[in-house]
Design a protein that fits this description.
Number of strands: 26
Oligomer: single chain
Radius of gyration: 27 Å
Largest sheet: 6 strands, mixed
Strand order of the largest sheet: 11-16-15-14-12-13
Low-confidence stretches: 2-16
Helix content: 25-40%
Bound molecules: beta-D-glucopyranose
Number of helices: 22
Shape: globular
Structural class: alpha/beta
Mean pLDDT: 95
Length: 744
């Protein structure tokens, strides 16, 4: 092991301040009274056995004993307010210094009231709604005693094989940054010591969304430039928004596991991004450095994590077991431990835990704070806004004047499929299923049959489904993936709909009845092979507690769909990873429509394309239909020639040219035509939801700043360059209304 002994001067430079805040003074004073063991305890987080266990080998420890000894800084996954209160009482009354425990939990898209999965929330393009849903989640979770959530997940990903795309905001760094900021603001509010706000955690630092082959936990390797342009922005934005904590990723990055990666955790996170909160590892990820093969044992793993300034270790206990000997051997200094312990105590101080360790939680407060009617209504509205209408031939939707609806499919009465992965304390029995939602909205008109299980035939199921469709005016078929086939450790090699479900859809379609497909999913899916079997396709995602009601709101036409994709839907698996913001290459595709395999090839295309499949996705990023139609025109670049550093203002008119009211998401895309490095063919740079009555128009205005135009230049500076730019405004990444400007 290489020796790293830090001096006090270095330590001070890490916190980047000479003036100590009240919180820091308090923490320093407390640290002066603490034993080394107690300090290491603050840097250790343990899990109780009652919650979700995501690692294979959570340390079996007697937590109560450790708490009494003052050797636990944080606990995750206690599942009752009484349990949290009891543990806090033990810490405060029975440990020597009575330092309160910081209770954490994965409150990812709701606590009791479950909102749509995060990917779906991003499809609302409604940052205010996302902020409010995080605020509601914080209000419920804090009432339970939780003061810290492991959210937002800021990992950009263009690979729907990776199950965790459900927890993020999709493929785009700009949209991801906006959503991440909204979540931080929602959780933390304006005052962390307010008893209804909780500490946010930016995860998984860093680049966890780009595992090779879409396989969870797999190696991440990319150029620094790619990383800075495409993956870093959401983490950075969330940190700038004041997120109090950061979680390290499981993966290695440039061949060094992030939990021991000093370049990432110290040079980038602390020194460059100026993060001054505390860093927690992911579940067991410190110990897992042994498996990665960069540490020969847990002691060396602890040493590497400490050397990278990882303040708190989640679950693996290597700090508690090894720090004393690392100090004795002179490999780690106590100053360094003081600094990390201080980061954690400062957070506890700012949360107000030292004023009142019980300010978060209490069984009575919890009962009064959950499932509030207005929060449920809000969740319903968010779910509605998150659903994306991909196709609506012959205006099959909404179901006006329909007398008999055959509701078919494996998820029609499945509460679990409404909630998705990471459901906090949500209850599947509280979730409004699609069957309930439609039956409430269309009393006496719905016949519900499952038809099949997600992956298996049901005896007589197909025949029953076909009968139901024949006896109905329309078949509403609910297909897709179960809730637990998304999220962590749910990677797939295919994102096509399982075979048996396709069979069901084909059988129903063969009846000749109009078919509406409701797609339940936690990821983008490859739909080309079955798209023609449905007249309308509405992606409902895992829509949360109020899912079924929100589905009914849209299917009935009480509201018009307004969600737009935050992730491209590929045609087939082979196109993955797929993103709208790809580079042009030196040989852009020659083919809009490629030849079929029967084509006699005189010449190969010798351009960047597939032999028989277009490069384009089936449904692009930003895309989403409404029951009405919108037209974009009159683009105006207000100042088409600007100097470096100046803003560019772009306006366009949007008109509702259909016959019902609706909401469109106006999107601004930009292309830097010639730069010192290759730039994406399009990049999202602004968006706005616009509600319009039939015939009504509005002007949308976007301001492009120098920062919006900045990228990682050839010289590795993150800044803009002069040159010519194109812009487009419209309702998807395919927008055709074009303008241009020049930066001199
Ligand atoms: C996940 C994290 C999560 C943690 C605690 C890990 O397996 O990767 O996202 O916050 O468990 O539950």
């Amino acid at each position: 092991m290489k020796k790293i002994v830090l001096t006090v001067a270095v330590v001070l430079s890490i916190c980047g301040c000479s003036e100590r805040t009240e919180a820091e003074k308090f923490a320093d004073e407390l640290i002066s009274k603490m034993t080394l063991r107690e300090k290491i305890g603050q840097m250790s987080q343990f899990v109780t056995s009652t919650g979700v266990v995501t690692g294979p080998e959570g340390e079996k420890m007697n937590i109560e004993q450790l708490v009494k000894a003052g050797e636990v800084g944080s606990i995750l996954n206690i599942t009752t307010p009484e349990g949290i209160e009891k543990m806090q009482r033990l810490a405060v009354d029975s440990s020597r210094l009575g330092i309160p425990i910081l209770f954490g939990h994965d409150i990812i898209h709701g606590c009791k009231v479950i909102f749509p999965i995060n990917l779906a929330c991003a499809c609302t393009w409604n940052t205010e709604a996302v902020k409010e849903s995080a605020r509601i989640a914080a209000a419920e979770a804090s009432a339970m005693g939780i003061a810290w959530t492991f959210s937002p997940m800021c990992d950009v990903s263009a690979d729907p094989r990776w199950g965790r795309v459900s927890e993020g905001s999709g493929e785009d760094p700009y949209l991801g940054a906006k959503m991440s900021v909204a979540m931080v603001e929602g959780y933390q509010g304006k005052d962390l010591s307010d008893s209804s706000t909780i500490l946010a955690c930016v995860k998984h630092f860093v680049a966890y969304g780009a595992p090779e082959a879409g396989r969870d936990y797999n190696t991440v390797d990319m150029s620094e430039r790619m990383f800075r342009d495409r993956y870093l922005p959401p983490y950075k934005a969330a940190i700038n928004a004041g997120a109090g904590t950061v979680m390290t990723a499981f993966n290695d990055f440039d061949a060094i596991p992030v939990s021991g990666n000093r370049k990432i955790l110290k040079d980038l996170l602390r020194d460059e991004l100026g993060f001054d909160g505390f860093v927690v590892s992911d579940y067991n990820s410190v110990r897992e450095m042994v498996r990665h093969g960069v540490a020969k044992d847990e002691k060396e793993a602890a040493y590497k994590a400490l050397s990278a300034y990882l303040d708190m270790e989640m679950t693996s206990g290597t700090y508690l077991n090894n720090v004393e000997s690392l100090i004795k051997e002179g490999l780690i200094s106590e100053d360094m431990i003081n600094q990390m312990c201080r980061n954690i105590l400062v957070a506890k101080y700012e949360l107000g835990l030292f004023d009142d360790p019980f300010r978060y939680g209490g069984a009575e407060r919890f009962r009064k704070s959950i499932y509030k009617e207005k929060d449920l209504e809000f969740a319903r509205a968010v779910a509605r806004e998150s659903m994306v209408l991909l196709k609506n031939e012959n205006k099959v939707l909404p179901l006006h004047g329909i007398e008999r609806i055959a509701l078919i499919g494996p998820y029609i009465s499945c509460g679990e499929a409404m909630l998705g992965s990471w459901i906090g304390f949500g209850e599947k029995d509280r979730a409004v299923t699609i069957e309930q939602g439609l039956k409430n909205r269309f009393p006496g008109k719905v016949t519900a049959v499952k038809g099949c299980d997600p992956y298996q035939h049901l005896n007589g199921g197909m025949a029953e489904a076909v009968r139901a469709a024949r006896n109905a005016d329309v078949a509403v078929v609910t297909l897709g993936l179960p809730g637990n086939i998304s999220g962590e450790s749910a990677s797939l090699v295919t994102v096509e709909i399982p075979g048996v479900q396709k069979e069901l859809l084909a059988a129903v379609k063969a009846t000749g009845k109009p078919v509406v497909l409701l797609l339940v999913t936690g990821r983008a899916m490859a739909l080309e092979s079955m798209e023609n079997l449905a007249d309308a396709i509405l992606v409902v995602w895992h829509p949360g507690t109020m899912g079924g009601t929100a589905v009914a709101d849209l299917v009935s036409g009480d509201f018009s769909p307004s969600g737009h994709l935050a992730m491209s839907f590929p045609r087939c698996d082979g196109q993955i990873p797929i993103r709208y913001n790809h580079k042009n290459t030196g040989r852009p595709s020659k083919w809009k429509v490629p030849p079929t395999p029967t084509h006699k090839f005189g010449n190969k295309p010798y351009s960047s394309c597939y032999m028989f499949t277009p490069n384009t996705p089936l449904y692009p990023f930003g895309y989403g239909l409404s029951y009405t139609e919108f037209e974009y025109d009159r683009i105006e670049v207000v100042n088409p020639e600007v100097a470096m550093g100046e803003n560019v203002v772009i306006r366009a008119r949007v008109t509702n040219v259909g016959d019902s009211e609706g909401v469109t998401v106006a999107q601004l895309y930009m292309r830097d035509l010639v730069a010192s490095t290759t730039r994406p063919v399009r990049e999202l740079k602004g968006f706005e939801r616009v509600a319009l009555a039939p015939g009504q128009s509005a002007t949308v205005e976007f301001t492009l700043t120098a920062e919006d135009m900045a990228f990682c230049r050839e010289d590795m500076q993150y800044a803009q360059e002069p040159g010519d730019f194109k812009v487009w405004v419209g309702d998807s990444s395919d927008a055709s209304l074009e303008g241009c400007f020049t930066v001199k």
